[in-house]
Specification:
This protein is an alpha+beta fold. It folds into two domains: 3-107 and 275-297 and 312-326 and 359-445, 3-Layer(aba) Sandwich (Beta-lactamase), CATH 3.40.710; 122-247, Beta-lactamase, CATH 3.40.710. It has helices at 3-31, 54-69, 115-127, 169-174, 190-197, 206-212, 231-243, 247-259, 313-324, 337-343, 418-427, and strands spanning 75-82, 85-96, 101-102, 109-110, 149-153, 158-162, 279-282, 288-292, 310-311, 328-329, 332-333, 360-362, 367-369, 384-387, 393-397, 402-407, 440-441, 444-445.
Length: 448
């Protein structure tokens, strides 16, 4: 970078911090409360009161600001909570760089795959009502998948064979179903391709698409591999079939309203679009450019399970804290403790959870850190959570009673390693000698 560019960046950085800093002071005064009641009334605490360092937490802002200064991201929101109290909530950079709109702590982000833990939680709420067993076939509710086929290859040719076992609810929760809504390479005729893709037109509902996709053979026999793809779309449809409500309605009535998550939607209301963070994309020179500015979209009736929700840091922490609390927040219990322990326990053995990286297994809707010595992240055994394709990340460390959230909007962020390094910057701010004498790993207590 030349001298003029550096000078310009320093001036820009000063403007951003002055603007966002002022916004954060007002936000902090507004957010301070004696109890967690709604997402706009977060319980804030002095970091030192929960064994964290104020000075070291500042490194989180410095961390994201470097990416902003180098034009690799436009902006970021980050949140850290410990022992049920938020000790860091901050915004740096731009919500929309081209329009000189600073990022704010109430900016709304496209969650992409961070939708998955929420939708999986919805299904487990129905599990607690005795509506099904985890090993019941999904064909009990989606009959099109009775006698479903699997695509196998002997090296010379491929053919479709009967499933070795039915796809179960556990399989779709753990991404071991082999199911996909993508017909490419699955041996379908042109007519079948047109059928499952609706001739290239958008489907009105996910349920219609799932039903048609039953003619797509699975990539492997259920339970034999871990494959990231369409499984959580089936979770969403199971919620709809079992509850009699759309997943959108179920989430609003059974999760978002009880938890006070007032800024979490599939369809963003018109009066909140001005808070939606613009989406950027990487350029060939390693910087970023605008991909899509915020714009109002007419309400959809297509509600995926794999993605689709939009939210804020202040909303998502309420969901994350509920899970960390064993299913309860502010007197509202959505799940029982034993159910949560089941969800955040590794269900996939030593299968390669390649999306999250080495050392991870997968529970019922959550990635689970099994072996920290293999992981790129700095977190304790049993840490869990998930991220989104646009650069969002949620993780919780049950040993340290710690939650970290980060939100950016940059598909193609992987070369930056920005999410993996975030866990390192969060963990270094813990300064006490130990959070609890008997922490929980994968939901179950151990002795230090």
């Amino acid at each position: 970078m030349n001298k003029n560019k550096n000078t310009s960046k320093r001036a820009l950085r000063g403007l951003i911090r002055a603007t966002v800093g002022a916004a954060f002071i007002v936000s902090a005064l507004t957010l301070h409360s004696t109890s967690i009641i709604a997402a706009d009334e977060l319980l804030m605490a002095e970091p030192e009161s929960v064994g964290m360092s104020s000075e070291r937490l500042q490194r989180i802002d410095d961390y994201f600001q470097r990416f902003v200064d180098d034009n690799q991201i436009a902006g970021a929101v980050s949140l850290v909570a410990r022992h049920g109290k938020v000790v860091h909530l901050s915004a740096v950079g731009w919500n929309n760089r081209e329009q000189n709109m600073p990022m704010t702590t109430d900016s709304i982000f496209y969650l992409a795959s961070m939708t998955k833990p929420i939708v999986s939680t919805a299904l487990m709420m129905l599990f607690e009502e005795g509506r099904f067993r985890l090993d019941d076939p999904i064909s009990d509710w989606i009959p099109e998948y009775t006698d479903h086929k699997v695509r196998v290859s002997d090296g010379a040719r491929a053919s479709n064979v009967a499933e070795a076992r039915p796809v179960t609810i556990r399989h779709v929760l753990t991404h071991t179903s082999g199911l996909s809504l993508n017909p490419d390479g699955m041996g379908l005729t042109e007519e079948e391709q047109r059928w499952v893709t609706n001739n290239g037109e958008a489907f009105a509902t996910l349920g219609e698409r799932i039903a048609r996709a039953a003619i797509i053979p699975a990539a492997f026999h259920p339970g034999e591999q871990w494959q990231y793809g369409s499984s959580t779309d089936y979770v969403a449809i199971l919620v709809e079939k079992i509850s009699g409500q759309s997943i959108d309605q179920f989430l609003r009535e059974r999760l978002f309203q009880p938890l006070g998550m007032n800024d979490t939607f599939y369809n963003i209301p018109r009066d909140k679009v001005n808070r939606v963070a613009a989406v950027y994309r990487p350029t060939a020179n390693g910087e970023s450019e605008l991909q899509q500015a915020a714009a109002y979209k007419e309400p959809s009736t297509y509600f995926p399970g794999v993605a689709g929700l939009n939210s804020t840091a202040s909303d998502y922490i309420r969901f994350a804290q509920m899970i960390s609390n064993g299913g309860e927040l502010d007197g509202v219990r959505l799940l029982g403790r034993m159910t949560v322990e089941l969800m955040i326990s590794n269900q996939t053995g030593d299968k390669d959870v390649y999306v999250r990286g080495p050392g991870f297994g997968f529970g019922l809707g959550f990635g689970v850190l099994v072996d920290p010595t293999l992981s790129f992240d700095t977190a304790s055994p049993g840490s869990y959570g998930w991220g989104g394709a646009y650069g969002t990340l949620y993780y919780a460390d049950p040993v340290e009673d710690l939650i970290g959230l980060m939100f950016i909007q940059l598909p193609g962020h992987a070369p930056l390693n920005i999410r993996q390094r975030f866990t390192n910057v969060v963990s270094q701010s813990v300064i006490d000698s130990g959070s609890t004498p008997n922490p929980k790993v994968q939901g179950y207590g151990i002795e230090r």
